[in-house]
Amino acid sequence: MKNRWTRSLTLQLLGVAAIVAALNLLVAPLSWRIDITQEQLYSLSPGTQKIAEELKHPVTLKLYFSSSAAGVPLQYKSYGQRVREVLAEYQRLNPDKISLRVFDPKPDSDEELWADKYGLKGADLGNGSRFFLGLAGQSEERERALPFLDPRSESSLEYDLSELILRLQSEVKPKLGLISSLPVLGSEPDAMARLSGAQPRGPWAVFGELSRAYEIEPIEAGAPIEDDITLLMVLHPKQLSDAAQYRIEQYLLKGGKLMVFVDPHARADQVAQQMGQMGQAVTAASDLPKLFEAWGVDYNAAQILGDLDRAAQVNAGGAAVPFALWQTLGIEAINQEMPPTKGLEKMLVVEPGGFRLTENSPLSLEPLLSASDKAGLVDSTLLRYMGPLQLNQKVETAPKPLYLAALLKGKPKSAFDQVPDFGDQPAPGPHLAQAQQSVFILLVADVDFLFDRFAVDAFNLLGQTIVQPKNDNLGFFLNLTEFFSGADELMSIRSRGRFSRPFERFEALEQAASQRYQQAEAELNAELQQVQAKLAELDRQQGPQSAGLSAEQLAEVQQFRDKEKETKGELRQIRKLLRQGIESEITWLTLLNLLLVPMGLVGFSVWVYRRRFKRGF
Predict the structure, then answer these.
(1) Cα–Cα distance measured from residue 253 to residue 438, given in angstroms and rounded to the nearest whole number
(2) What is the pLDDT of residues 141-159, one digit of tens each?
(3) Is the entire prediction scored with pTM above 0.85?
(4) d(CA 276, CA 239)
């Protein structure tokens, strides 16, 4: 009986193994998948489907993927296969207009030569060969390429592919006019900075991305704005003259599309000044006072928005503490009903402004980024004298809601009763006293969210610089630009969501511990101030003739030191408990992920076997 049972079990296991192997061989060539992610991250979006179905001209996609190259990390080969599968799905959407060709460029081959001609970046493997994972697209006489597809940028893969196809259909790029006081398109250091070793800097990553889809035309403040400008972007306008503001306004009143980004305290501005990329400036704040007054926008360029509910974690004194003037915006702060922001989940804003509309404003407001009901405005000058915890205490809840970004719509009147003096330059055509039709204005009260330091991570991969978003800041900006320029198909792809999901339980633990840390440190600071006041009072009582500290003063100092030591011990214990709690939860979740499914399969197999054993063989 035992031998019979053993032989039967062995035969069953061998049969199962044979079936699994056969299924793997049969299914391997296929690219069938079931996407069970919350936001269908691995399914082509409606925007991509629309782009593919409405192609006017045939498109040829050429994937150069070194699948046979030796010495390449498995991660890149697996991602290359993933890219190939996604491109096959594109082809299936419109096989009459989309053709796909896949090449394996070996050393000194014609395929390698063509990859170089298309500008694809082959990573040197050090053995005389190069690894390619790039895409070239052709449509009629137009060519575009994605030089290198990196797995760490998988979240933007579909967007990059669809953007390439869409731009292949367009004969000319839309023109974006840019008025900016920041070196967002790159800069050369001044003479003094060059002496200290400063190097030229390239464009901000977000504008490098933007230049792929738009022809960016820099416009000097106050210079004429040509009629062929599809979209006007005013970024960090500092002390613009009436003539410059008038040109911006008249462009808008004629029906132009306008995006405005202001900031009460732009750290990117300060960095640019320190690196000799800008002339001397008296302020890091920006404003459009004449236009804001005419539009009924209540914004103070000398005040920073603080939000106690959305405080970001910053390093202060060697410990992470919440800072209300830096904010992490989650889905509760991002309008999920508007196309440009739908699907965005996490942004970082740094010392932003806050605004609202006045009661007599001629515009309506559709919020995009909103402050919480625990937000208020703080004087920007306090940044010079106070640390994060002290500034948190200065945040007082505002009586009315405040916004960080909004879409404004309406028929505003001109802010100027008469045309300003333009000197030798021509005035911008006949004066318009009011918009003849509804106009749209995007207003964002932060600039730093676009700065590389806060928006992206840049790293070197085999000699190539790869940029990876830290958050949804870049997506938010590109969504809005595409929304204003009419490319809503691309916007629906950009907003699909994130491939990495946060551990919300861990974040809650960290937030709770941070609050305890903040409270303990605030108590310590308060006690320090009381002791210092007491010491000053004792010093005045002794008079200027006294030397050294009295016994009472020494006792006060010793008492404070003992209390300080005790409090620091409590803070260390808080952090220790926090780490223990998080590590414990990570351990349990890891065990569940590793063991739950296998244990379930084993249990199911045992149950099936016992039922069969009871019935006999």
Answers:
(1) 9
(2) 888 899 988 887 787 788 8
(3) no
(4) 20
